[in-house]
Amino acid sequence: MALKPLGDRVIIKADEKEEKTASGIILTESAQEKPLQGEVVAVGRGSFQNGTLVEMEVKAGDKVIYGKYSGSEVKVDGHDYIIMKESDILAIV
């Protein structure tokens, strides 16, 4: 991957949108909800607080849940990623 996050940012590959409901109804593009979880692809080295480097809690490969309006969406080499601060991650699954 050509992306390397800086500071306390992470790069996440979002899970695919659900195209069918549990009962088998096919959803249109406008009815599909944006997924709120994905896999961490890369992490920055952390942030400095009071002159001390604070390490990242998440690591590449972690499945995480994040806020609905968190991060910035980017497309690199035909793949969609989300770049966000570690503080926008709500939980590790």
Search tags:
93 residues; mainly beta; 10 Kd Chaperonin, Protein Cpn10, Chain O; six-stranded antiparallel β-sheet; two-stranded antiparallel ribbon; 42% strand; elongated
Mind sketching the topology for me?
Layout: E1 9-14, E2 37-43, E3 47-49, E4 52-54, E5 63-66, E6 72-76, E7 79-85, E8 89-92
Antiparallel strand pairs: 1-2, 1-7, 2-5, 3-4, 5-8, 6-7
Short structural summary:
Helix content is 0%, strand content 42%. The chain is mainly β and 93 residues long. The chain has one domain: GroES chaperonin (10 Kd Chaperonin, Protein Cpn10, Chain O).
N→C terminal distance:
24 Å
Main β sheet profile: 6 strands, antiparallel
Overall number of domains: 1
- Radius of gyration equals 15 Å
Measured by DSSP, the beta-strand proportion falls in: 35-45%
The run of helices and strands is EEEEEEEE
CATH superfamily: GroES chaperonin
Q: Based on CA inertia axes, which overall geometry fits?
A: elongated
Q: In CATH terms, what is the fold-level topology? A: 10 Kd Chaperonin, Protein Cpn10, Chain O
Q: Low-confidence parts, pLDDT < 50 over ≥5 residues?
A: none
Which CATH C-level class is it?
Answer: Mainly Beta
- Care to count the β-strands? 8
